[in-house]
Amino acid sequence: MDDPAGHPLGGGPGLGETRDAAAAARPMTPPDPRRVALLLGVAQTLAWAGTYYLPALVAPAVVADLGADPALVYGAFSLALLISGLAAPRTGRLIETLGGRPVLLASSGILAAGLALLAVLPGLWGWFAGWVVIGFGMALGLYEAAFATLGVLYGRGRGGRSPW
User: Exposure of 57 by Cβ count < 10 A (0-12 exposed, 13-18 middle, 19+ buried)?
Assistant: First the structure.
């Protein structure tokens, strides 16, 4: 569902509208799938690089700098994965209600906030705090959310076939 401003991932309803009322007020033409694939591909690459693959690069330095047990340092990342998994069903409902664009956009801000916390908060508690925030951002913005958004955009009325 392309929103009136032409945003490719669909917007939510206007202020005071439900998704059904907003959808009925405008044509139900999905955005160009190639454009969506390009934009989602770039966003997913950045999101995965800044979250899932980050510990492989920085955890050894964090262990050395903090003198912390490696199990605790990597455990913070495991906690983020747990939070992401637990938050995933709610993320799906948000995408169904609001559309993918606002949810994926929120994930970028939340991921940035979590990365900033990793950078500025001292010690192991700061490391854990950053990963807790990143866990919520991961739920809102990694593959599951991206694929749910594609399902909302292209799944209905297409007989389950790919738009490509």
Answer: exposed
